[in-house]
Design goal:
binds pyridoxal-5'-phosphate, 7-stranded mixed sheet, 2 domains, Aspartate Aminotransferase, domain 1, 36% helix, 17 strands, alpha/beta, Aspartate Aminotransferase, domain 2, 4-stranded mixed sheet
């Protein structure tokens, strides 16, 4: 393979790429072009839930390719997408609903906003401080990152961002004009912040009272990441729309909107579309990823590893004056520092451990869900060293 020149790139400079160029992956490790192995607590930003070179993904990709069908379009029926929709819906919303497939998390949220508008006949959207919902014109409007938004305004009108957990502010914001309330049950990019189940229940009641749709964005925290298939299962609150993406198709681009029956009933042919959504290759892979993650033993193992990781990070926090707080669930954790997190991400990479930030002061850890206990321990030891 030809070496990549780091000082000259034809790729648009909207990313500040750092570190080595990776050429292969195995289990929970990425392998650089000089052969150096990096333990990966990033997993392609919470995408590679089954790690690298997982036999389930390999087999599904090869089987899908054997049909000769990578794509057929949504003009025709195709079995993998039908099966995937049925299995996703069977596991959500008390088994009643429908699925729409797209290609990314932002696209899933844009779709969810349209579906909520069509169902409610209203236009306004309420989101929360610390949120991240994507970089397109509606999802960015609902994202609490003014620096991301400002250069591209005007974005979608009628979107309000209210303080997370503030019931009085939410009550003022959610009115008879509100089409949807969108929230991540466990915020990712905004600093790895679990949202109180009581606040989610409060929003459920508010939405019901005002005729608004409740959207849970589980693009990052969904699909096993927190130790249950959907993060909302741990809250006792059910949304009207659920958005998924990142790990869904094992690293192939895919997003999904799951709609409860009553919202789905408001949509008709022509209301929404996307050329690539739910094609046979991605849907075949996603079905196998879903079946693997949804296995009770797989999820129990995520919870056990997550409990160990949480306790280890708490211990690490107790021994490091740099650490202000540790937050998370399952295999999604944030270490909040009293200083910028980026230098510690670099220091960890220098010791062959990949971690990422979530906002300026938080180190984020989202390893493959298949990570071994030994690899978790190895990574935590590096973090302890770096934070000492
Ligand atoms: N929603 C959440 C919670 C996310 O974490 C992300 C991406 O990080 C998105 C939406 C946007 O997803 P994508 O980058 O696939 O558009």
């Amino acid at each position: 393979m030809t070496a990549v020149q780091s000082d000259a790139s034809a790729l648009l400079g909207v990313y500040a790429r750092v570190g080595p160029s990776f050429v292969a992956g195995e289990g929970s490790e990425l392998i650089a072009e000089d052969g150096t192995r990096y333990l990966d607590f990033v997993a392609g930003i919470a995408v590679n839930a089954l790690g690298y070179n997982h036999p389930v993904i390999r087999e599904a990709v090869l089987r899908a390719l054997d049909t000769g069908l990578v794509h057929v379009s949504n003009l025709y029926r195709s079995e993998p997408g039908e099966l995937l929709a049925a299995e996703l819906v069977a596991r959500a919303f008390n088994r009643q609903g429908q699925a729409f497939f797209c290609n990314s998390g932002a696209e899933a949220n844009e779709g969810a906003f349209k579906f909520a508008r069509k169902w409610s006949g209203k236009t306004e959207i309420v989101a929360f401080s610390g949120s991240f919902h994507g970089r397109l014109f509606a999802s960015l409007a609902a994202t609490d990152r003014p620096d991301y938004r400002r250069p591209f305004e005007p974005l979608l009108a009628g979107v309000q961002i209210v303080p997370l957990g503030d019931r009085a502010a939410a009550t003022r914001a959610v009115t008879a004009a509100t089409a949807a309330v969108i929230i991540e049950p466990l915020q990712g990019e905004g600093g790895v912040r679990p949202v109180d189940a009581g606040f989610l229940a409060f929003l459920r009641d508010l939405c019901d009272a005002q005729g608004a749709a409740l959207i849970f964005d589980e693009v990052q925290c969904g699909l096993g990441r927190t130790g249950t298939l959907f993060a909302y299962e741990q809250t006792g609150v059910t949304p009207d729309l659920l958005t998924l993406a990142k790990p869904l198709a094992g690293g192939l681009p895919m997003g999904a909107v799951l709609l409860s029956d009553r919202v789905a009933a408001a949509l008709a042919p022509g209301d929404h579309a996307t050329t690539f959504g739910g094609g046979p290759l991605v849907a075949t892979v996603a079905l196998e990823v879903l079946r693997t993650i949804a296995e009770p033993d797989f999820l129990a193992e995520v919870r056990a590893k997550g409990a160990w990781l949480g306790q280890s990070l708490e211990r690490l926090a107790a021994n490091s004056p740099r650490v202000r707080a540790v937050r998370g669930r399952g295999l999604m954790w944030g270490i909040e520092l009293g200083e910028p997190a980026a230098p510690f991400v670099t220091a960890a990479r220098d010791r062959r451990l990949l971690v990422l930030t979530a906002g300026p002061n938080v180190i984020r850890i989202v390893p493959p869900l298949t990570i071994s206990q030994g690899d978790l321990e190895r990574g935590v030891a590096v973090l302890a060293e770096v934070l000492a």
